[in-house]
Specification:
Shape: globular
Helix content: 25-40%
Structural class: alpha/beta
Order of helices and strands: EEEHEHEEEHEHHEHEHEHEHHEE
Strand order of the largest sheet: 3-4-5-8-9-10-11-12
Number of strands: 14
Largest sheet: 8 strands, parallel, barrel
Length: 364
Amino acid sequence: MSQLFTPIKLGNLTLENRIAIAPMCQYSAERGRATAWHRIHLGNLALSGAGLLILEAAAVEPDGRITPQDLGIWDDDTEQALGEVLKDIRKYSPMPLGIQLGHAGRKASTDVPWRGGGFLTPEQGGWQTSAPSALPFHSHDGEPLALTKARIEEIKQAFIDSAIRADRLGLDLIEVHAAHGYLLHQFLSPLANQRDDEYGGSLENRMRLTLEVFREVRRVFPADKPVGVRISATDWVEGGWDIEQSIALSQALEKEGCAYIHVSSGGLAPEQRISVGPNYQVPFSAAVKKAVSIPVIAVGLITEPEQAEAVLVEQEADMIALARGVLYDPRWPWHAAAKLGAKVQAPDQYLRCEPHDVKGLFNK
């Protein structure tokens, strides 16, 4: 039997297969509110046959958005708008749905990628950013304010409030975003964090905020629903965050009750030098998997079903996450099941499309 299509449990949540759809920002919200684009986009992916769909990063406060068009979950309006989208999706798809909660920190206040993604000044519709230290991402960006302890507490409370809203929306899972150079990753990395208080300096201090945020989200989110964390395993810059520190963080998170670790990399520093190729991040997930007993999710240029299967067979990860690949091929799980001789979920309305040469592909 294909490993990719065997069930797995994240905490108490059982998934039908080991394919996750990773969070992918769409930059299509209006004042943080989900729109018709989200209904179309997420509805399409929810019919893909994957075991889990994790919604894009939702900002826990307006200043935590990457762009003015980011999805949010910080007030009643943003909660209601997302709830309306989720209601329509659930009417036609039984797929478990999670959400990623995040704060962009110094990488906030930028334009959408298809317009270049440059820093936006307040006159251009942007805002004052904040970070562990007053160090901009690019030298030509506006300088972020170093967060006071009072603001750190406000941001922690924003994560708590957003987690409560996520539960109220009936979401099955929360992923805390501590990767890709955003706020929690900024606290983790010595390249962005030059504080001299209890949140800076030693590894223990730099991990403090990520562990505190996780602990608080775990506290308010129902115990039977999993909370995981996405990390960047390395900054790809000498002297930055690296796999050894990632292993220490993963082990600390496991002790706090983390349900899984989702292993990505990079995004913290423009100086990063990444050797991109098939499976280029899998060695990081493999290293984390050896160090923890909770499930580990691999991602990054895993594009072929046989490739994904091999990662699991070689015990380099417990699940495979797809991002750009599933945008390109929203039926990737169907095609993978056909290649690997497995079965997959499909909506009743699509059952007639089962190919003649793979009869029995769809679970009915």
